């Protein structure tokens, strides 16, 4: 059996025409941990190109493994390090994580280079399903977005009215008082940010607005860049709680319904991409929305703070995230007859508002 780290090394040699024994050893060691496996798989798909990606994915697909394409915010929070080992031990299916923005995760699913997606941009998710690339989307969990910035808050946005806050950021930016750091990568976070700017009829353009900068990076790297430059940014609460002790920025704006951030799981359609491991992927999603999976999500904490709330069965309580009885019934038949905490539905939004 070929070690996937060795396979990556061969692809790197093919592309770069050189390698060293030290590099080989680094790859083998790095691949031993789940977090580094995720980084390696992400690098494979982003660095090696179509041919290299195909070889690697052909290997993964030949094993008792699935590829989960998910957001950098989910990955950076550490949640998957808690959930996936429980699933793997119970079902004997290995989950390899591809950590990218939502837009790229959807593109990966469209090509059949992932078996299942866990993403957070409902309009893009619905488009993906409507176009036939995904099936059986289901609400899994949610948290919320917040706007962060320096404690000095030159833009004076520390208030709950999101429209006023966005207007003040724009005005302060145009007055050369602040810089705003956007992911600029068509991720769920980027999509939400553009929706917030739209509330004040503003379309940011980094080529025209010098104060508005796009990192083109994941949430963790964007946070670091904003922190290094005393800038403002939009961030999901999961990544924020996992990272805030390492930065000097502070939470400034939160608490409006439009900032709620639901995550959905989508199976890649096997009729469009017959190579996907549909049954394994379905088993994984059923675990996420089972009573056990939802409790693991709800119990996950950093420094005593909850990063996500379980959402299966109660999506209708969340802004821009409707659900249907058909969706609930489909997954109930696969997850041990669990329909979600329907009796607590009225409480669903309280902890993140």
CATH superfamily of the largest domain, please? Periplasmic binding protein-like II
Question: How many domains would you count in the coordinates?
Answer: 2
Number of strands: 12
CATH class of the largest domain equals: Alpha Beta
Distance separating the two termini:
50 Å
CATH topology tier name of the largest domain: D-Maltodextrin-Binding Protein, domain 2
- Mean pLDDT across the residues is 84
**Biggest β-sheet strands, sense, barrel:** 10 strands, mixed
C-alpha Rg (nearest Å): 20 Å
Q: Based on Cα principal axes, name the global outline.
A: globular
**Helix count, per DSSP?**
15
Corresponding CATH architecture of the largest domain: 3-Layer(aba) Sandwich
Proportion of helical residues: 40-55%
Order of helices and strands: HHHHEHHEHEHEHEHEHEHEEHHEEEH
Structural class: alpha/beta
Oligomer: single chain
Low-confidence stretches: 1-32, 343-350
Strand residue content = 15-25%
């Amino acid at each position: 059996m070929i070690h996937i780290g060795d396979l990556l090394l061969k692809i790197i040699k093919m592309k770069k025409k050189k390698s060293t024994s030290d590099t080989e050893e680094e790859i083998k060691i790095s691949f031993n941990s789940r977090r580094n496996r995720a980084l390696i798989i992400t690098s494979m798909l982003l660095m090696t190109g179509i041919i290299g990606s195909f070889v690697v994915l052909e290997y993964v697909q030949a094993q008792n493994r699935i590829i989960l394409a998910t957001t950098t915010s989910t990955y950076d929070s550490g949640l998957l390090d808690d959930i996936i080992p429980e699933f793997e031990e119970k079902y004997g299916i290995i989950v390899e994580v591809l950590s990218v923005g939502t837009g790229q995760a959807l593109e990966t699913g469209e090509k059949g280079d992932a078996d299942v997606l866990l993403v957070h941009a409902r309009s893009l998710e619905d488009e993906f399903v409507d176009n036939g690339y995904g099936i059986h989307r289901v609400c899994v969990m949610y948290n919320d977005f917040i706007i962060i910035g320096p404690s000095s808050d030159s833009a004076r946005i520390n208030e709950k009215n999101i429209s006023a806050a966005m207007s003040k950021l724009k005005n302060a930016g145009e007055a050369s008082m602040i810089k705003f750091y956007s992911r600029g990568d068509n991720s769920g976070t980027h999509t939400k940010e553009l929706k917030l700017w739209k509330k004040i009829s503003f379309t940011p353009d980094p080529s025209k607005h010098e104060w508005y900068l796009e990192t083109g990076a994941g949430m963790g790297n964007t946070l670091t860049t904003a922190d290094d430059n005393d800038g403002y940014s939009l961030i999901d609460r999961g990544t924020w709680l996992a990272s805030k002790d390492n930065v000097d920025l502070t939470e400034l704006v939160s608490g409006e319904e439009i900032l709620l951030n639901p995550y959905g799981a989508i199976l890649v359609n096997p009729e469009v991409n017959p190579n996907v491991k549909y049954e394994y992927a379905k088993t994984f999603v059923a675990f996420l929305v089972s009573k056990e999976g939802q409790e693991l999500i709800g119990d996950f904490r950093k420094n005593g703070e909850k990063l996500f709330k379980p959402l299966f069965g109660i999506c209708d309580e969340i802004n821009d995230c409707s659900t249907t009885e058909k969706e609930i019934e489909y997954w109930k038949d696969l997850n041990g007859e669990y329909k979600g905490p329907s009796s607590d539905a009225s409480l669903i939004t309280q902890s993140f508002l």
